[in-house]
Amino acid sequence: MTKVKILSPDVIAKIAAGEAVDRPASVVKELLENALDAKATSIEIHLKDAGRELIHIKDNGSGIARGDLEKIFQRHATSKITTIENLEHLQSLGFRGEALYSIAAVSDVTLGSRISQEDGWQIHIRGGIRQNLEPTAMSHAGTEVKIAELFFNTPARRKFLKNNTSELNQILNIVLPYTLIYPEKRFVLTHTGRNLLDIFPVPSILDRVAFALNVDINQLLETDQEFVEEKIRIKMILGNINIQRPRRDLQFMFINNRPVESRNLSFNLNDVYKLIMPPGVYGAFIVDIALDPANVDVNIHPTKREVRIKDEARIISLLRRMVEYQLMHKGTPKHMSFPNASIGNRKNAVSGPPIETFGGDSVGVIRDDNMRDFQLFGQENTLRSKFTRARFVGSFLQKFLLFEADESLLIVDQHAAQERIMFEKFKDQIENAKVESQPMLTPLLLKLTPQEKIAWEELQEKLTTAGIETTQFDDDTIAVQTQPLLLKNIEAVVRSLLAGEEAPRMDHDTLARRACKASIVAGDKLDNTQADHQRKQLLECKDPFTCPHGRPTLIEVTQAFLDRQFLRT
Fold this sequence. Notes:
Elements: H1 9-20, H2 24-37, E1 42-48, E2 54-59, H3 99-105, E3 108-114, E4 120-126, E5 129-136, E6 142-148, H4 155-159, H5 164-181, E7 186-191, E8 194-199, H6 205-212, E9 220-227, E10 232-239, E11 251-255, E12 258-259, H7 263-273, E13 285-290, E14 296-297, E15 308-309, H8 312-330, E16 355-358, E17 363-366, E18 374-375, H9 380-388, E19 391-396, E20 400-405, E21 408-413, H10 414-431, E22 437-447, H11 450-465, E23 470-474, E24 477-484, H12 490-498, H13 508-519, H14 528-539, E25 554-558, H15 559-565
Parallel strand pairs: 1-7, 11-13
Antiparallel strand pairs: 1-2, 2-6, 3-4, 3-6, 4-5, 7-8, 9-10, 10-13, 11-12, 14-15, 16-17, 18-25, 19-20, 20-21, 21-25, 22-24, 23-24
Helix pairs in contact: 1-3, 2-5, 5-6, 5-11, 7-8, 10-13, 10-14, 11-12, 12-13
């Protein structure tokens, strides 16, 4: 009996749709790219229920002729390429002819279009089946697409969509890059009638970046270099040291005006930023690389977001050189400093051999016979006892506090210890609704990115619970009115809390952990009294020997270990 069957066209269509369309953002991307390929100068995107109920896109591009309306919904129907050789010289954003075919297979689509000097026509397709084709009134050339009931016939896929905040963030992540690279075009994005983006044409990409990302244009560095021998042109807009973010939400990479993702390029750019940025924060950059299309493969992934670049190492070398020169020679000093009342340094990751855990005493010992007396935690009762009677003997690099107890040297990570102390106090205040806060003498005005605005609207109540009163100052700016007494660096705290899709769902533990992590600023040198005070505060904690993120606050080095290192047997 034969087992192999030829799949029906209906099943094939739904499988193909899954390759190109997995959420509303995928639909927006494909239709937005079609509008840009049609040379539209104005693109409007209107959403309902984060795109589940409706994605409505209007453009003033060249339009689609009546004779092509049915063809565009067939698989691999495209006007962009005709031969395999065309793939080596691609100038368009779309080219495979998958988008409309895939979208129509899993939704209800109405598409109306008009080309110049002709009447408009409209086609209606539901679940891949044409319903009708008829004339429609349109005042100008262009295309209007309405995608309703997305995934109505694939409920399993619809079930895996996330909440509206997450889906809207994904859509913003798709739309924002195109607004940056096409400053001469107008972009509108609304959700249930509320503007998320309304961006008008501007003279330059520098003006567009400042407006769309809501950053100070005076804190941006622009450069444009052509490398004739390599046939490469690189345009950059870099944020100086004053633009710092808790995540990489202000970093954009383009190749030949196509938004792309490249781990290697991103890593190297961030690596240069480490020369001026404190650990744990990220800079802003917009990089557009123009090179021979034959040296870029954009066809390695259904979304066309990942690319393969020929001679990538050479491009990385050019990028690093350009970025380092701009940041070091053209950058400006930090305009605003925060109080250094907090103790500790930013993120100091623990590295070293693997750690082994033994039983209920939580003994963490590095697996090396020559280092078996070098303990990360030690038996807690013994370690707590030693730390209780420990004597401060000095500090190292303003990061580590050194204590002596019995025959051991106890080394405290000043940053991790302070974070643990603050975390437990702050979490306790939140849970008991007794957060100690103070009004700010002058409200702190924070310009928010579109993603941060969405998060703030849902997170306002939780910010208030944490002692951070905020109000809306204008469409893109909030005013921070109060600051918890325990927390410093309030801008970093607020931005950290607004970062990420999970922000609206944070519990008290997560809220306190993220706030305290962002609050810690560069470590001060502590004198004997201050170091001993931190030791006593740490001992009062419920969990004194790890920071809120699981790193150790203290390690113990025994005399036996040191004797062996100095061959004192």
